[in-house]
Specification:
Length: 398
């Protein structure tokens, strides 16, 4: 599926609340938080001139979030940041004064945090981030996972001291159960998707992602002409699209949203013209993108700031994992998880489809930017799909 944006709001200014949250001021707030993280460092930006030449584009750069804050995913920037902001706000109410990021490890703040429990449903990466953030601040975390989440992903979350709660059924079942129990227990839900009446916390999660875009703009040798970013509920795509629009204005690149064909809730919303919930189908290998209803904030942004929407198939995602693991023409090897390379898969599909290539004006003068949103967060699954262990890929040719 390929759809150009024909929504009435296309290219209209962002909602003021979204602009305030996802622009320069929002990125400044995230920088202040990251300055307090001992293991923070900008993630690598890789140039892939060999693959660019093979595809017929002028340049291709990949931002590699597999190195983010020890979690191996861009989501390390979202949930943990939102938890920090929530705890500081609660401390401010308890202490009767504003509490700054620099105070996050102060005894008075941690005493307040000890009485806070955050909760979320997750397929893996978001839950790890929320659990890490809770541990960092001294709060408790309860993480709900559905029956399809692998034991390896559950163990990776539990390492941060979170209470793990298994829920029979689908991701949606785990969301419903997390919401029910949190209301009963007085816990705070930290979700990366929004719905009517619940926007502040998902907006903070999205604000965390702006750090990734700011870093990339500083690292890129030239501004990109095209950006392909994958979507589940749409949060990261919307955060990237919004920040690019707010910072670059008329110089902003074309922005293309990429989804799994088996879970294309954003594309279906574009087709209908409003956010919709789609039916569950066969699971996608791109498990971190397996979402069936877009975030309302993400939809509000993408209907204005995205230029096109497209889907990729299962084999596209696996092919990109393998292509990045076994580069040619001297390109660096990159470990991309099942969902990590979906944006790049969109570019490959676009270049192989004349109608899409023409519609997006892709060619030798194009400078393309994509994000590897996750590394091998499930190493066993990665090795199964690629035929190599992640460490072997990172080590490069013998």
């Amino acid at each position: 599926m390929f759809l150009s944006n024909a929504h009435p709001d296309y290219r209209q200014p962002l909602d003021p609340a979204d602009g305030d949250m996802l622009g320069e001021a929002g990125a400044d707030a995230v920088d202040a938080y990251l300055a307090q993280r001992d293991n923070h460092a900008p993630t690598p930006l890789h140039a892939l001139p060999g693959l660019a030449a093979e595809l017929g584009v002028g340049a291709l750069h990949v931002k590699d979030e597999g190195f983010r804050l020890g979690l191996g995913s861009f989501k390390a920037l979202g949930g943990a940041y939102a938890v920090a902001r929530l705890v500081l706000a609660e401390a401010g109410r308890a202490l009767g004064r504003p509490v700054e990021m620099e105070e996050m490890q102060e005894p008075a703040v941690r005493a307040v945090a000890a009485g806070v429990t955050v909760a979320c449903a997750t397929d893996g990466n978001h839950g790890r981030s929320v659990a890490q953030g809770a541990g960092l601040m001294g709060a408790a975390a309860a993480i709900f996972v559905h029956s399809g989440v692998s034991d390896e992903r559950v163990a990776a979350i539990a390492r941060y001291g979170a209470r793990m709660i298994r829920v029979e059924g689908t991701y949606d079942d785990s969301v419903a159960e997390a919401t029910r129990v949190a209301q009963q227990e007085g816990w705070t839900i930290v979700s990366d998707t929004s719905w009517p009446g619940y926007e502040q916390i998902p907006a903070l999660v999205m604000q965390g992602y702006t750090a990734m875009v700011r870093e990339a703009l500083r690292q890129l040798p030239e501004l990109p002409t095209h950006v392909f970013v994958q979507a589940g509920v749409g949060g990261v795509a919307a955060a990237v699209a919004a920040h690019l629009q707010l910072v670059l204005g008329e110089r902003r690149p074309r922005f293309i949203v990429v989804e799994p064909a088996r879970a294309a809730c954003v594309c279906e919303s574009v087709r209908v013209g409003a956010p919709v919930r789609i039916a569950h189908g066969e699971p996608t290998v791109m498990a971190m993108l397996e979402c069936y209803e877009p975030s309302r904030i993400a939809w509000r942004v993408l209907s204005r700031a995205a230029d096109a929407f497209m889907t990729v198939d299962e084999e596209d995602a696996v092919a990109v994992m393998n292509r990045l693991a076994r580069p040619v023409f001297g390109d660096p090897a990159i470990v991309a998880g099942e969902s990590g390379g979906a944006g790049l898969a969109g570019l490959l599909r676009a270049m192989a489809t004349p109608e899409i290539r023409t519609a997006l004006d892709l060619g030798p003068s194009s400078r393309v930017f994509v994000i590897n949103t996750e590394g091998a967060t499930d190493p066993g699954r990665y090795a199964e799909l690629v035929g190599l262990a992640p460490d072997v890929v990172r080590a490069g040719p013998a």
